[in-house]
Amino acid sequence: MISANKQFDIQLGDEIGKDFFTQDTVVCAFRNKEKTTDFVFTSGPIILICDGTTRRKMIKRRFKMEFDIKKVFFHSFIVTRNAEKLATENCGGPDTKHRDYLVVCGEHKLQFISLPDYHFYHYEIPFKLRNVFSCSTSLLVERFYDSSSEQTFHHHDTFHLYSLSGPFGELLPVIYKTSGYHPQWKFCWQSHRDEAGLVDAQQNYVVVYDQKEKTHRIYMARETQEQEVHAAIRYVEALRRPSDSTMFASSLAPNSAGRTTHFDPTLNSPAENVLSEVISSEIDSRSPFTPHLRSGFGHSTPNNPNAPGYPATLPTPNFEGNNDSQIWATTPNTPRVIARGGLERNIHTRTLARMVNEDAPGTSTPAAQSRLQTTASPFHRTHLTQMCRRGDTNASLLRDFTRMIRDTPRNFSKNTQHGNDRDFGDLERDPDVDLLLSKVCLECVYVEPKEGAIPKANKIFISNFLSDMYINLVSVTGEVMKIIPIWKNAETTRKNLLEKGKHEPCVVDCVDAAFVMKSGITVVLGSDFTTAMFGGNERIAPIFIKEMSNQRVGRKFRLFSFAENRIFAVNEMRCIVVEIPETVTCKSATELMRTCFLHLDRDLSRKLLIKWRSVKRDVDTERLDLDRKEMIDVAIFMLDNVGVRVTNVVAQERADSPEGHGGKQMRPRMSDSEVLSMMRQFFEEMTFRPKSEVITEDGYKCHLSVELDPNGEGFVHTQDLLHAFHSQCEDWSINTMMHSILLELIPYAYLLAKVMNYRAFEEYYVQLFKHLLSQIAIEFKIPPEIHEKFVGAIHIPKPCWSLNNVIAHIICERTTPETMESIPKFISKSSVRLLTILAVGRKFIGMGTNIDMDCERWLGKDWKRRIGLSGDILKSFRRIMNGKSSNSAGRASQLIELFEIGSITIDFMVLAVKVLMLKFQTDAFAGAQSIEPKKCIYATADEMISIAHLRWKNDIRMHNVQLMLNSSRPILIATNILRKNEDDNMKELQDRFLTQTSYRTFSQPFGRAFLDFRTAVPSLLTSIYIPRLNVGGMIYPSRVTCDPPTTEIFKLCTEWGNFYNSLASALRIGSSETVRIDNEWIVMVSKNIKSTAVIGGMTLGFGLNGHLAPFNMYHAHQMLSTFDKFHSVALLIGLSASNFTTCDVQIHKILATYLSFLMGPTPLEIKLDFTIQTAAISGLGLLFADSGNMTIAKKLVNEIGRAPNRDEEPVTDRNAYKLSAGFSLGLIMLGKGNGSASTVIPFKQNIPPMSQRLIYMMNGMRRDKCVFLPQVAPPVVNDVPNLPFSNGGMMTSSQVANHVKESEYINIHQSAEPAAIALGMMFMKMNNEFIANALALPGTITELERLKPDSMYSRVLAQCLVMWDSIEPTHDFVKSLIPPVIREYATAALHFGVPIRRDEDGEEVHEAINDAEEKYWAEIVDKGTVSQTFLYAVSAACMAIALKFSSCGGPNEKNIVNTAFRIIEYYTKIVMPDGKSNKDMGSIRMCIYSGAYTRTSCLSMLITAMAILRVGTGDLEVMRYARLLRLCDKPESDWIATGKKHFEQMVAHQALGILMLGEGRYAFKKDDLSIALTIISTFPTIPQSVSDNSHYHQPLRFLWSMAVEPRLLVPFDIAESCVVEVDVTIVMKPKDGNEPIVYKEKAPYLLPPLEDLQSISIGGGNYQLVHISLQSEDQVKVMKDIMTIGQGRVMLKRYGVDSSEMKIKEATTLYDDTPSLMSMFNNEDTAVELDEYEIQCMMEKIDEGINLNSSDEYPNVQIELSCVRDVTERTTMDLAQLQKRSLKLLSESLDLWQDEVNVSNTINGLADAVQDMQI
Questions:
Q1: How far is Cα 25 from Cα 48, in angstroms, rounded to an integer?
Q2: Do residues 868 and 874 lie in contact, with contact meaning Cβ atoms separated by under 8 Å?
Q3: Strand partners, 964
Q4: Mind giving me the DSSP string for 671-703?
Q5: d(CA 888, CA 916)
Q6: 3 state DSSP class of 166
Q7: What is the distance between the terminal CA atoms of the chain, rounded to a whole angstrom?
Q8: What is the distance, to the nearest Å, from the Cα of residue 176 to the centroid of all Cα atoms in its chain?
Q9: DSSP symbol at 1236
Q10: Phi-psi bin for 1487: left (phi > 0), alpha (psi -120 to 50), beta?
Q11: According to the model, what pLDDT value does residue 1569 have?
């Protein structure tokens, strides 16, 4: 007899109590996230969740409910579409379409415990529960009712069964289809004949018990369809018609729980009762809307904590989105909140209830108040006090109800009745109500006949036996169990069960039963206290369970399914886990048995499985050869049952020993071979080594004796069994781990083919395993007549197929999708999946538009079954194959994951298949779409330190720059240096020293903004971090702090310093593309800050990063209404920057209120600070950038040339205003030339073109020729052009300024710079020679002297912008921008560029100009004009070179960049401070005559140009120049008097920041807007201090933040979560018809502009190689997302690459320690024309071929190839031909890659050498 083992008793501990296990104890089990099983025990209000992996059950969780638990079970809900999206973002797991819960049931409540986080979700039911059942579609909630007492009152308005789709779903009534001659859809249960109570439900099957007929019915649950809901509604409305005389009200007691009631046409309309409840203002205090808080649970919840049943802890819903996508959290002791959707759900629940009379029976009157009752619970009763008129029909109910839920979003289409004039009411026609009224329907599939009906079942469960499904009804009272066969389809189930005799249900004696999930059997506890195993509806064999054998105790056990091959057994005293013997133990035996059952007939497979299970098999799990022995037993068992009897004789049977005469039995003497075998076995077991085969005396491993069944039973199935054996052999042939098991199965497949006379199969096995078969003796004991009968019974032989040949055909270079052959139908599902992956990777499948047609052509019409696709797997397969974002290798890699082919499985595949799979996985990242980042995670400080260490290994330049830009440290004051004599006032000296050094402190935020740019993400719970701007001092050596000066100027500078300091801190936060900042958080951050300067700077920083786009305009106007300078500047520029290039109307209106030329006349007289107006006009350019708005552009031209008026006095910031107007004009008309005006024919308009007007403003002209203001007063001059809406640009006498007098001509000292830069931006990259000539510097000294010196920079830079294509990093280009007359005078008068003469010793001889020559040139030319023109032109040319060639990549581009750097460096040395470089006399004289301001301005621009050229690289040479500018003179000198120290310090800090932009992550973009913004932010206008905005609006210094982009490529190790250094191969796009340029660098690496790249390959070595293509715009966009959202990280997988020795060691363990291939080469009997020297040469050739391989992109493949020689050398003789075939296949697979040609040829030669052997 088969025995079951008691695995363990469950001990819960003494603290639980001895009475925990009772008859009421509920038990269930579920799978946790670790894929193990947990127990759940409940008794009373206690829930215990115990660990199911250990013998002594540890209590993992313990909960105490506030109600007695009636039932607990596990259920998995299918989430909705929106919830699925949220689950995908939060969980990210593979199964995101389901949510797992433990459902705890009380009398009126459900408690959902989510798994695995154990969050509680409370759901209160508005009626008393009878039971709750788990169904595949949803939960089925059965309402309590007493059917015996209510049969008299049963009517069509009784609804007893509801569905619940989740913890946040709605209770919806269930409809069902009646059985009989006229089936009809109704609500459960409306028909008295169908009165039933649910017994149980499992999966999608529901069993009910008919109380009247005393029979069971089986229903199949599914989702409803629209027409089915309509049918049920029409049935309800038909019964409610007033003509139906049977419709009357049956009154019940008002407080009766769970009674059914009916609608009465004489009572008030229920719809109007509902409406009165919602609309009426005279609502009773007992109304559900007054004392109850409605929640999103679909019902009312009492708001009285003292009410009975009120829970102490309720979940509070956090609403996010619509009703179907809510995320809930549990908040202790928090009342429920009102969620959207509660009103609709409450109305819905109430309208589904019945109407009852509030008074006692017989006392109701027509005017009696009516009540709409929805629950039997006392605190759920709803009262209506308003009187309603009577309705003739209930159609008003339907219409009013429809109106109430009109806002509920649904997708059903409007349904109308065709061909039928009958109107069934709005309820039937409204699609919204259709979905609300019912979601689940029950379709009857089986009705139990009265004859043979069993008593009411207490338990049901579904069992599976060999893919056959059965539903088991267990009746404890009747002690029977009925087993009914079912099918997945309702129609099939109904049809098959109606057939008499074929699928009859069976009844067995049973007290309880449980299904064993892994074994597929049912354990039945019989009424005679015995236990038996059933397979479906057939008894297999008895099974002995010791604990249940006792007659007194056995009946009290209850059985529950647990996991795998275990079941629960629970009684009042104990709970045990019983382990049922498995069908087979080992993997190989399981695979062989499964393969045989799939190929054999279903009925035969069923009989064989039952026969196998009915025999007791003692399995010794300690045996080392258990796998081999069990697999042989299965093979012999299968052969025996098809009529082929095989006897395995290892050695001859020993003769019986003679019995002694009353003495000791004599033992025969053992032979030498037996002794040797015994000793070998002993030592092998001691050393745990694989056993060697025992060789008998005659030289054979074993003897097999074959006989045929003379009865001939099973002969017809031998062909199927042969295909099963062959299919299994082929599967194991490509799995190296199973090769040793394969050798055990081959003899049985061979002898079966030989018996069947299948010559093709016989020859196939002999060819592959000749050596193996030669060691096995097969004796056929078959009479000829029986063999003839056997051959006649089998089918015609099928062609022999080979999985190796199918793979070879797929990977053959000559194979095309058209020539690909269909694969044999006998190939297993796992092999078909493997072949599908190879075909997809080879582009044979998935390249066309019809995937189904490709698969059907290749696999046949049943291709879905052959691949094993159904449900979600089929959807995933179609999604992968139809995906356009992945290449063929990417699809193959995704299929590997879909089919769950892990790395271990791939590692044990044959080399050819393994190499292909590894290459597919490596090439899967060929498209950038596959590495699209999902979320933004900013780099931590450790990660940035790691990146800096990898990029700059030999220094700490990053740390040095951070220290130089740190403004939070106090200034050190050395008193011994300051105090020259004792008479000096120390306090005055300290204040003066702090004032001077404050220039450096106040300028540090300008550079720190570059360094920390977008490197942090804020915490929404705390304020933003703003480092302290420390302008105080610390006296040395006393270390006493010194307060900063208190002068008004210093306080103003401190305010602006704090403004820029907070601005730099705000720029640390990521952009709006990666970080979403809420408007409320910005307001919260600024709430506790008192300084308006700090708030303003922070706001401007947020705006530059795009966070003010969704800013609340109420807060914006609130800040602007204060007229605070910092608030206004920050918002006007920040809002415009956040809405960059959008032309937003609302922001335009805000700007217009600060600009009089846009706002027009207004009665308001508001005096606006010029700084605010400058900010407004700057914001105008940002808002309308690149829009070409001619209206605004013309007005900006007028503002540049307009003369000041009286209202604008004093005009201190007039220059900055006009310069900002020029910037804005250039941004608006960027690259558009004259704009739309150039295409307009001037019929009557004689206004010059915009470009001509700007040229006038640059060179000088009458104001009325270029400024055209609206005519607001009569002109003061007589000669006025006849222009509409113009006064010639002149002012009236009342408008003329008092402090500034300007004539009728343009003041070019104020208009030349803005006009020049605007003109250059307008014609940027247009190569317009006319504009370029107009911008070029004049050719005569006289004209040059008329120009303002610093305006020359603007003109030259604008000329370069126009002639962008002509910019070259050469001296000739720089000199071409300098007027010839200046070059000549520089050489003649200043001796600039004159070669330096050397003396005899090689020393330079600097000859000074004599006094006579000096005097001569002083009279001829102004040397200052020559020097200034020369230096400004040179600095502008160098800036243009830097802007064009900034951050370029590629070998050629790097040479160009280096050349450009040397040119800029050459001119930088000219203007270096004296003593800081070796300069010739010409350079020294150039600096002397140009003046300090010119030299400072040009030096600053040249250093800035070098920094832009080397942006993000941390270049040390540029860093040295910047430090030199920072420390060119000491603070002890008079910094205040110079007036240029703030600009010098700011430029030095900016250069340092640019070199480390974003901590080395960012670089400047190359588009026109970015170039323009970079020019604006680096414009060389020298302010006197940080608060000086008179000549340049200094907040514009930060516009560069919109002109940069992240370009740092960071390889990131996924496993170690760290940055690594790998190779990156960059392919540049071909230019001018040349070939693409390819070069390699080390990553982390700052990439060139992405638009110039064709592809990127990162990885190699020990890491996977990721290819990123950048040929299309979509791919470039995805790569930009990687740089921004993904922070430049490219996730790399590190290969688990072991050394070749480790691989060899692993390979040798796969085979027995038998003679190797090398010994076969050296064996004279096996080797043909091969000697030891040839063998050695062949092996050396393999090594040479592998070393010649040039591909290093596939490290795992290289390691595998390097092991080919050693694995082949150690291949056993039995597997030699198999290895030869594998080598041939490997050679063919390597032919697909050009880099592997050498290895392919070498391996092919090795295979040929093996093929030449005779074995």
A1: 11
A2: no
A3: none
A4: PHHHHHHHHHHHHHHHHTPPPPPPP-TTS-SEE
A5: 13
A6: coil
A7: 49
A8: 42
A9: G
A10: alpha
A11: 95
- Nearest Cα neighbor of 776 from 650, 632, 589 is 650
Task: For 429-498, give the DSSP string.
Answer: H-HHHHHHH-SEEEEEEEE--STTPPSPPSEEEEEEETTEEEEEEEETTTTEEEEEEE-SSHHHHHHHHH
Phi-psi region of 1285 (alpha: psi -120 to 50; beta: other; left: phi over 0): left
Please give the pLDDT value at position 1270.
64
Residues 6+ away with beta carbon under 8 Å from 959: none
Amino acid at 1168: L
How far CA 974 is from CA of 971, 977, 989, 1004, 1534, in Å, comes to 10, 6, 11, 22, 17
Amino acid at 646: V
Which residues contact residue 1051 at a Cβ distance below 8 angstroms, ignoring those fewer than 6 apart? none
- Residue 1458 makes CB contacts below 8 A (sequence gap 6+) with none
Which tokens hold the place of 1304? 């009728």
How buried is residue 973: exposed, middle or buried, by Cβ count under 10 Å (0-12/13-18/19+)? buried
Question: Could you read off the pLDDT of 1135-1164 as tens digits, one per residue?
Answer: 999 999 999 999 999 999 898 888 876 666
Which residues pair with residue 302 across a beta bridge?
Answer: 292
986 vs 583, 972, 992, CA distance in Å?
A: 99, 15, 10
Tokens of 1543: 């600009």
* Cα 1061 from Cα 1012, distance rounded (Å): 12
Distance CA 1808, CA 1811 (A): 5
Side chain identity at 509, as an amino acid letter?
Answer: D
How many C-beta atoms lie closer than 10 Å to residue 1347's C-beta?
Answer: 22
Below-50 pLDDT ranges, the chain: 13-15, 17, 81-96, 149-156, 243-435, 651-664, 686-695, 926-930, 1240, 1243-1244, 1271-1294, 1698-1700, 1702-1704, 1706-1732, 1735, 1746-1752, 1811-1815
Task: Report pLDDT for 1156.
Answer: 85
| Among candidate residues 1590, 1582, 1587, 1535, the one with its CA nearest the CA of residue 1057 | 1587
AA identity, residue 1254: L
Q: How far is CA 194 from CA 262, 445, 455, 750, in A?
A: 18, 14, 18, 62
Q: Cβ distance 372 to 384 under 8 Å?
A: yes
Q: How many CA atoms lie within 13 A of 853 on its CB side?
A: 6
Q: Where are the alpha helices (DSSP H) in 59-125?
A: 81-90
Q: Which two tokens stand for residue 1548?
A: 């030095």
Q: Distances in Å between the alpha carbon of 1321 and those of 479, 1196, 1222, 1230?
A: 95, 14, 10, 5
Which helix (H) or strand (E) covers residue 1667, if one does? strand 1663-1669
For residues 155-178, one letter each, b for 16 or more C-beta atoms within 10 angstroms of the residue's C-beta and e for the rest, the string is bbbbbbbbbbbbbbbbbbbbbbbb
Task: List Cα–Cα distances, 1143 to 667, 1073, 1186, 1189, in angstroms.
Answer: 108, 20, 10, 9
Residue that the structure tokens 């700077």 belong to: 1097
User: Closest Cα to residue 985, out of 995, 994, 971, 975?
Assistant: 975
Please identify which residue in the block is written with the tokens 């409610």: 240
Give backbone dihedrals phi and psi of 468, rounded to 5 degrees, phi first.
Answer: -90, 135
Which residue pairs, CB below 8 angstroms and at least 24 apart, start in 392-395? 392/242, 392/265, 393/240, 393/241, 393/242, 393/265, 393/425, 394/237, 394/240, 394/263, 394/265, 394/269, 394/270, 394/271, 394/425, 395/237, 395/425, 395/426
> 137 burial class (0-12, 13-18, 19+ CB within 10 angstroms)?
buried
CB 1190 within 8 A of CB 1225: no
| Distance (Å, whole) CA 832 – CA 828 | 6
